[in-house]
Amino acid sequence: MASISLRAVHKAYGSNPDVIRDVNLEIGAHEFCVFLGPSGCGKSTLLRIVAGLEDASSGEVCIGGSVVNDVAPAERGVAMVFQSYALFPHMTVYENIGFGLKLAKTPKAEMDLRVREAARVLQLDALLERKPKELSGGQRQRVAIGRAIVRRPGVFLFDEPLSNLDATLRGQTRIEIARLHKQFDHASVVYVTHDQVEAMTLADKIVLLRAGPDVERLGSIAQVGTPLELYHRPANRFVAGFIGSPQMNFLPATVTAADSASVRIVLDHTQEVLQLALDGRSLAHGAQVTLGVRPEHLCLNPSAVQTLKRRVMLVERLGEQTYLHLEQAGGDVLMAKLQGNAALDIGAEVVLGIAPDACHLFSADGNAVPAPIHAKQENILCV
Predict the structure, then answer these.
(1) Are 333 and 313 in contact (CB under 8 A)?
(2) Same-domain check for residues 185 and 263
(3) In this predicted structure, what is the pLDDT of residue 379?
(4) Which of 25, 132, 254, 338 is most exposed by smallest CB count within 10 Å?
(5) Distance of CA 67 to CAs 19, 72, 76, 188, Å?
(6) In the chain, beta strands by DSSP E
(7) What does the pLDDT read at residue 49?
(8) CA-CA distances (angstroms) from residue 23 to 12, 26, 29, 177, 383?
(9) What is the secondary structure of 348-381 as a DSSP string?
């Protein structure tokens, strides 16, 4: 097994601003780490730096405890699966999977054993004599993964491997990749995606990267943590807005009272008063803040301790869930995600309950106000 360390890694092309800035990261042996972020944040570039396909402008890349900045890609003990399958169309599935072993002059008997074992694990046993044109997209991607598996690397690198598949195949192949990681306990996985569903369901650790001018000011990494840490305890407004679907609601507010266990705010546009279970010792009376509340943490409950009153602009019924788009002063929209089929019409006035421990608060610099010591947010119920 091989761990990965990135120390003060920067990457720039010519005189242009840094694509990757000040990345310090530890990826443990057998860890499934996902690089997540918007387009242009440098996810694939960072992956290619680990693979050796790009050189870091500065900083160190270590694999298995050894600095590999000057080590060729083929000698780093990594295998990469790309977005495009890159299969040889004139070769069979068997030949495609075993091509790297053939180049490495692996003995024929051992190569056959490895290819057939990879095919069995990937459920490609019956397809070994087919050509790529005879396979579905999901089967082709599994062949590409099989070509990586047979090399028995210490690190697997996946660069958006599911983006060419339809929604059903993405779900099926995602499950296959998760199963493979559990089965091949000798390898670590670094996986690039812009799809937060893939990140949340596959990752042991998510590395959320920023894009745009904030990279130069703050660095590329917005937050590192488990999927639920990023969901329940976002470090800043960027993380809170990126993780979760539909996106977190943000409402401008002013602090009227704060102590170590709670913060009282008044919403700027509606003058509604809310008491939040947060550690407000860093906040002054009158400070401008932003309230963050996820759509799934709002519910129809006029008898709740604290509520928001809004008018319905649009109703989206998805069967098991209903999305409410609600009027907000200032032209914004408040989203509520309700369970079941809510019997509401456009123009109806609704009262939404909001629990004190379901709220997030962000100071003027975008950083999150912490929860009180020992507080937990993992099991918030809409009450």
Answers:
(1) yes
(2) no
(3) 52
(4) 254
(5) 22, 12, 10, 17
(6) 4-11, 20-27, 32-36, 58-63, 66-67, 78-81, 155-159, 188-193, 205-209, 221-225, 249-258, 263-267, 273-276, 288-293, 298-300, 307-317, 321-327, 333-339, 349-354, 359-362
(7) 96
(8) 13, 10, 19, 26, 41
(9) -EEEEEE-GGGEEEE-TTSBBPPPPTT---TT--
What residue has token string 């790309």? Answer: 82
Helix 93-103 to helix 108-121 angle (10° resolution) is: 130
Per-residue pLDDT tens digits for 182-198: 877 668 899 999 999 99
Alpha carbon distance 224, 283 (integer Å): 25
Q: Which residues contact 379 (CB under 8 A, 6 or more apart)?
A: none
- Looking at per-residue pLDDT, the higher value among 130 and 301 belongs to 130
Amino acid at 340: G
Mean pLDDT of 25-47: 94
* 331 — pLDDT class (breaks 50, 70, 90): confident
In our burial notation (b when 16+ CB lie closer than 10 A, e otherwise), range 264-294 reads bbebbeeebebebbbbbeebeeebebbbbbb
- Provide the pLDDT confidence category of residue 382 given band limits of 50, 70 and 90: low
The domain in which residue 297 lies consists of 246-362
Q: Residue 136 sits in a domain of what CATH number? A: 3.40.50.300
Which residue, of 213, 240, 267, is where some domain finishes?
240
